[in-house]
C-alpha cells in the first residue's frame, strides 16, 4: 500500500512556516538546507553555519563562487548585509550556549523520548560526526525533517533508537512526509497528518504509540 | 619574537618525526596549502617528518594538502570531526587498510579542546556527546540537572595556518570564512607558523582589526598568491 505523502521539498516548506520572524537558525546539510528557500515573505531569519558565518544568503551564480565563503556542507554561499565572521570556538558558543532559536537536522531514527540517531549506520566505512552532536544541544528548539519511513519502508520513529545516538532527549519537533509531531513527556504527539492517511495507517508505519492531545490538523503543502 | 622567513622551507625544517601538527582550514577555506606542500617536499627529499599526528576538521580532499600528506605516508593519526567526503579518497583508503589511526571528535568539542589548550584549561565539561559512543570511557557530571561530558585540552607542537594579512610582529587577519580554526590553533601550538598573502610593517593593520595577536605567532612567510584547496581539488591536481 502506498500512502499519499509530501515530497522532500514540501516537508522543507512546511518546516519553514514555523520559523518565526527574527530567529537565528542553523540548517543541517542536505534536506534541512532547503528550508531557507521557503522562508515566508516578510520574515527576517538569520542563518548560522558552523564554520563561522552568521547571516549568509543564497548560493552565488555559477562561476561566481569564492571558496573562502562556504557553508558547513562546503558549498559556496553569499553573505547578506549585516553578516559576520568568527572563529570555530565562538561559532559553537552560539550553538551550545543557547543562542540559536532553532536547529533543524536530518535523521536516521528518532525515539519517542527525543533521542536522535543521525550520524552513523554502524561499523562499516569511515565514521564522521561533524557538528551534529553539538547542534542537538543548546538550540532552543531542535527539529528533525525526514521521510516518515526508511527507503525499505521501516519506521524511523521508534520507541528506542537502534543506531548509534547523536544525542539523548534532544529533539522537540518532527516534520515527516506524513505528519508533524511533537516530542512530549507522553511520547510522540500528533499535530498534523496528511489528508487521506488515517490515524491507524499512520500508526502502522510508526514504531511507537502516537498520542493525540488536541485536534489533529491537516498537513498540507503547495506544489513546490 | 616573530621570525620572518625568506624561504618557505625554512619555517618547517625543525618539525620532527612524530610531531603533533594542527593545520588550519575547514574543507578548502583556510587550508595553508603552500606550507603543507613545502612539508611534503621536505619529506620527499629527506624522509622526514613522518609518523605525524594531524589535527584538522577534515582529513584532506582530492590529491592536495592533507590528502597528499596521507598519500605520501607522512601521517600516522588524524584527529578530526569529519573525515568522510566525496573526495576524501586518500584518508578512506589508508583508514580501510589500517594504515592510519583516527580520533573522531565532535566539531564543537574539537574547537573547544583546541581553545582550552591555548588558554591553559586542562579540561572542561560539555553537553556534546553525552550518552553516545563518543563519550564512552569519559567522566560525566551533572550540573543544574543536566549531564555533561568531561573533555581534555588539545595542544600541538606546531600549527600551520593561513592568514590574509600579517604585520612583522605577527598580528594576523583572515579572509572571510577562512578564519575557522586558525585563531584557536595559533594559541594551542608550541610553535605557530603562518603563511600570509600580505606582509606589512607594524601599524599596517589597524589594532581594532587584529584577529590573532602576534604573541601567538612565531614564524611568518609571505605567500603573495596562495592557492585555494577547493579550486585545486576541482581541477583534480595531484601533489606528489
Automatic annotation (TrEMBL), chain A:
As one GO molecular function, the record gives: CoA-transferase activity
Report the SMART domains cross-referenced here.
Answer: CoA_trans
Name any one Pfam family assigned in the record. Answer: CoA_trans
UniProt cross-references to InterPro entries, sorted A to Z: 3-oxoacid_CoA-transf_B, CoA_trans_fam_I
PANTHER family per the UniProt record, alphabetical: KETOACID-COENZYME A TRANSFERASE, SUCCINYL-COA:3-KETOACID COENZYME A TRANSFERASE SUBUNIT B-RELATED
Q: What does the sequence similarity comment in the record state about its family?
A: Belongs to the 3-oxoacid CoA-transferase subunit B family.
The molecule here is called 3-oxoacid CoA-transferase subunit B
Originating organism = Roseobacter insulae
UniProtKB/TrEMBL annotation, chain B:
Which GO terms label this protein's molecular function in UniProt? Answer: CoA-transferase activity
Spell out the SMART domains in the cross-references: CoA_trans
Presence of keyword Transferase: yes
Keyword Transferase appears in the UniProt entry: yes
InterPro entries in UniProt: 3-oxoacid_CoA-transf_A, CoA_trans_fam_I, CoA_transf_BS
Key words of the record: Transferase
**Coiled coil where?**
none
The protein's matches in Pfam families, at most eight in alphabetical order, are given as:
CoA_trans
Similarity comment: family membership: Belongs to the 3-oxoacid CoA-transferase subunit A family.
Q: What name does the UniProt record give this protein?
A: 3-oxoacid CoA-transferase subunit A
Species of provenance: Roseobacter insulae
